[in-house]
Structures are given as structure tokens and as C-alpha cells.
Amino acid sequence: MLAVTAGAMGAGAVLTLVVVKLAGMGAACLAILLGAFLVRALLRKQWRGTTSEEAAEATSSEWDYIIVGGGTAGCVLANRLTKGPAGKDKRVLLLEAGRGDYDNKLVQIPAGILRLFQSDFDWHFYTSNEKATSGRGIYLCRGKCLGGSSCVNVTLYTRGDAHDYDTWEKDFKCTGWSAAEVLPHFRRTEDDQIGLYKTDPKHHGSGGEMSVDNVRYQNPLSAKFLEACKQAGHKLNPDFNCWDSPQTGAGRFAVSQRNGARCSAASALLAPALAEATRGLKVLTGVLARKVVFKGTKTTGVQFSVEGVDFTANLKKGGEVILAGGAIHSPQLLMLSGIGPAEHLKSHSIPVISDLSGVGQNLQDHPAAAVAFECPEDYRGISVTSAIRIAGTSIPHPWPLINWFVNGSGPLTSTGCDHGGFFTTEAAPANSSSADLQMRFLAARAVSADGMRSFTSFKKTTRHPDGFTFQAIAARPESRGRVLLASAQPETNPVIEGGFLTHKQDVASIRAGLRLARKLAQQPALKPYAGREVFPGESVQTDEQLDEYIASSVHTANALVGTCRMGELSDPLSVVDPEMRVKGVQGLRVVDASVIPKLPGGQSNSCVVMIAERAADFILGLPRK
Questions:
Q1: Exposure string for 106-141, b = 16+ CB within 10 A, e = fewer
Q2: Is the pLDDT of residue 4 over 70?
């Protein structure tokens, strides 16, 4: 009998594995049984949503702040608006449409992302009316739980560069949002585990709620990738978040993890706030916001439904409603509430409260395409996919699971793409000082040219040959899409027109990235491992062929922003002012990725945390530092 106790799981969740080796049972059979048992335990559902009785109790009194959306920004706001002298007497109601079990082990295990895409933790959106993607709608993963997309992203912690934020202030007239002014709010939440704070406290924080670390695992192929970058003439970059040096170079991406587990906005910021009984914070989950309620142009509350029953949560005098639903749901709820392009609202028989043509416009995302190689037979077992599964099955191998539970290390601490770099390609705009390409390296062979489909199909794939994949991403995209209402009913998903590849600059940057990937694969460090080119295939060589491949396989790198963008009041396409107050009404703000005017060159989650930190200061009237 073998007993393994995982004390690292936390109070109330200690896992004791008892394996009885039956006579004649081989190691492979034992591993399969143990792996199947662990998967069953991990998939066990333990979540219960808010009841109508609980909703009735929550709406029997008034609130200082009602936050609609318990994603990244919502969790930060819930913490900050009830914290310290400024927040100690505030009553805050947080409404979340999704699940409440952000502490589910599939969320906590970084590699659990392979089972979270297109699950109950995902809104499972698709774009439509795409003009440049070979007629395909593009799958968009958005987190459907407390913590939002911080629970289903690849945990990368990259902020972009200083020019990104200076552009917000200079080009979009977002006064107070320069790099120098937002940097302290990045540092405030950060708890550096890498050691960068000791050498560079200007750019890094220590003691904050969001732990930032390196992945506690490095596949041999990932190390070879870094060697190949050096051999190709690219520098190694030890810190992509240091704004005193260029963002370009190759290295390890920092991740939002603590002790090898995902550090989501819910686990890092919401959970501690809920644990303090003296805070005036109430959270309702599984509730659908129907509209913001107004008296004239003054915000008075939020109407929502639970178990088919409608309720209205009301504000105290001087209170505020804060939309934090993200780049899809925030513009949808604004339009359902009568704020948006007047003609579009009228077409759905929605009375117009404030005619704002920018609501739903300016949708941005990082488009990506992949180059994948299969390793020769001599290197069977080298990929991370071989390390985490029992060969020939879709069952996770038990030993990496035990390693994660006991030590917080090993291949399950990786979402797969924690090595890579930023590069300025020959396709970069002549007047740009920032990298146009992000490259993410995966020590696994893609099973589909569409990188997101490789993730979503992994749990069903029993044969997964060894190999490696480069994901080429247009780091600072120029294409724009939009979000429109499909109906006046909040139960109906909005129409999402992604606009992928509608600007030739994005195609050119991705094409240059595919060529760079091939060049890196032929460097001495990687060449022995680069067997057959699976995607796009050696026959795809000309610009026209590569562009056709990009159109047929482009996928999201999951950074949706921009649909309620900030700007000065006179800007006809701005939705909120630089303090995130919605134009034309009182007592309503939007605080999430939708207010970002232009997508930074990096993953968006750390940026959203910073935005929510600043918003809390604005709302509470705290002085700017």
C-alpha cells in the first residue's frame, strides 16, 4: 500500500491517495487507474449559486457601490473599496454571472487550462461576420467565474512597454495615464518572487497580493529555444517588464503564480476580503445582470435575475454602479441599459439614455498563427505533453499530479507557453519604437493549425506525437472589431465582430513571425529536434501562401479590450473619461479591459489589475501619488 498526503492543498482539501497494488497488476495499469481516479476527483463539482432568498436579502438594503462582474477588475475593486480607513464603512455588492468555485483544483493547477477551455468556466464566445479569416468565426475564451479570465488565462504577466501607456495619454488624451503615472499601481499589487524587486524596485513590487514568479519547470526544448535565439543573434531578456530597457529579446515570461499554483484575482484579492468579517462586502454568483437602472440620467441601481426572478439592487445616496464585465459584457450591458449608439438601440426598441456612438466599437485582440514541428523518433518522450499523460491515453499521468500537490512544481505548473520573446521584425512600422511581434514557444506539437483548437482538443487526443510549436502574435494589432446587440434580452449573447486581420499590418507581422520561427528551428540548438514541419508545412513558402495559411488558421491570444474606451469628453468615440465615468450620466463607471484605448504589447491581465487599482483611488477620492 502506498499513501501520499498532499498537505499543500490547503485546509479542508487534503488529498490522501491510497493505492493498493493487486496481485499481477502492472505499473501501467496502476498508473491508469490512479490517473483516472485523480481526474474524477478534480472534476467533481462542488459549487452552488445564489438562491432567490439570498438575492432578496441582498436587495433589502442599499449599497454604496454595486460592482457588476466579478472578474479581474471586479475582484480588485471589491478588495480596495472595502479596505482601510477610506473603505471601512462602505457596503459593496458584487454581482457575478458565473461560478463561484475559483478555488477548483482545475483552476489552481496551471496546466488545468487544458480542461477549462470550452467548459463551464468559459463563456465560449465565437466571433461572426469575419471578413479575413476564410469565413471562420474565431473562438474566444472568457472566464465565467469569480476571477474571470484570470482563472482561465495562461498566467503570463507582461505589462507592455512605457510607450504603450504614454500613447494613451498623448494620442487618446487620457490625462494621468502616462507610463510614469501608472507604474506605481502596477507595483502596488505585485509580490515579486523572482528576485527582480531587489535589483529593480523602480519597476517591481514586493508584498502585494498578486504573486509574480517564474514557472517552476523548464522543459529541455524550452531551454533549447533560448539557445537558438542567441544563435540567431537575439539577446536574452531577463525582465520583459523593465521599462528602462527595450522590450525586445527572448526569455522566460513571468507568470501570476504562487508556489506553483495559479494566482487569480479571486484567490489573491477577493478571498482575503471575504475572509474579513468586518468588511461590508457581499458576493452573489450565478446572477444575470439585466440592466442598469436610472432616474433620468442618475444611476439608482442594477436589475438582475436569479432562478428566473428579477431583483433590483439599489444605491445609497451618492453611491455608484461600476461595470466590470469585460470587453464583451460591459458594452452589452450599457446598450441594454440605454447607453450606446442611438440608432442601434432604437432598432432593438431600447429607450436611449445617452447616445454614445463609441460603445461596442474599438474591439481589439492579439491575432496569432502557429508553426509546429514533430520531433524525430529518437526524441520520443521529450515534450511536455508526454510528461503529463499516460502514453496512448487521454488520462493524466499521476506522478506529475502528485508532484504538483506535494511540491508545487513540475510540468503541471506550466500552461505551455511561458518561454518566448518580443521582436521587431522587418514588417514593423517605420515610425514604431516598440516590438511588433510576440513569440510564444511551446514544448509541445500542435495538433491543429488553430492554436486554440490544439488546447481545446487536447483532452480528447490519445495520440500526441512529440514536437514543439511557435506561436507568432501581432503584439500591437491595428485591426478593430465591434460588439453589437443581438437582441434586447441579456440572455442572448451579443454579436462579436472580431475584425481579425482586417489591417494588413497584423498579417505582415504574423507572416514575419512565421519566417522567424522557421529560422529559429534551424539553429544548431533546435535543429536536431526539428523533424517534419507539421504546420504550415514545407510547401507553404511564398507571401501569398503564408497569408492564406494565416487567414485559415488565425486564432486569439486572448486579450480582448477597447469597447468602452477612455478619452477626453470631447472625443466622439470615447465612452468614459480618464476617471472611467460614463459620459452623459451620473453615478456610473466602467472599470475593466474595455476602457483600454489601445492594446499594450503584452498580456492584458496585469494591465486590468492596474486599471482597477487606479479606479478604486478615484472612486474613494484618494490623492494621486
A1: bbbbbbbbbbbbbbebbbbbebeebebbeebbbbbb
A2: no
